Amino acid sequence: QVQLVESGGGLVQTGDSLRLSCAASGRPFSSYATGWFRQAPGKEREFVGAISSTGSAAYYTDSVKGRFTISRDNAKNTVYLQMNSLKPEDTAVYYCAARRTFTYGAMGVSRNYDYWGQGTQVTVSS
Predict the structure, then answer these.
(1) Whether 50 contacts 59, CB under 8 Å
(2) What percent of the chain shows pLDDT beyond 90?
(3) How many alpha carbons lie under 13 Å from residue 55 in its C-beta half-sphere?
(4) Are the beta carbons of 48 and 39 closer than 8 angstroms?
(5) How far apart are CA 126 and CA 113, in angstroms?
(6) For the purposes of burial, counting CB atoms within 10 Å of the CB of 125, is it exposed (0-12), middle (13-18) or buried (19 or more)?
(7) Residue 44: which residues within 8 A CB-CB, separation 6 or more?
(8) What single DSSP character describes residue 100?
């Protein structure tokens, strides 16, 4: 089992930055690829980006490319989502999730993940 806890959300203004953290406990986090998803009110959960277990590979949905960066520190069992140039449309609950293998395409589908955090709210005011 892997337990995931997100933190770092909050209320910011357009153009601000936030860094979300996803802290893991349980099995060695370095064995798991990690994805970030978000869900806005009334909308389906949306893929944001993902990173491989070693951090050597990552990819993002088009709407956040160039603004968001995922990184990880396996010594700290933590994955980060650095969000810059935030927009009101980035407002959502952000979730991290983990699965064993890093596969392009598959990482973008929420049902392919084995473990989920509880989410952290990000609100961007205009």
Answers:
(1) yes
(2) 94
(3) 14
(4) no
(5) 33
(6) exposed
(7) none
(8) S
- What's the pLDDT at 27? 82
Query: Does residue 105 have a pLDDT over 90?
Result: no
Contacts of 112 (CB under 8 A, 6+ apart): 99, 106
Contacts for 41-49: CB closer than 8 Å, 24+ residues apart: 43/92, 45/95, 45/110, 46/92, 47/107, 47/108, 47/109, 47/110, 48/81, 48/94, 49/81
Given a cut of 90, whether residue 29 has pLDDT beyond it is no
Name the 3-class secondary structure at 15.
coil
Comparing 4 with 28, which gets the higher pLDDT? 4
Beta bridge partners of 123: 11
CA distance 109 to 111: 6
For the stretch 33-52, pLDDT in tens is 999 999 999 999 999 999 99
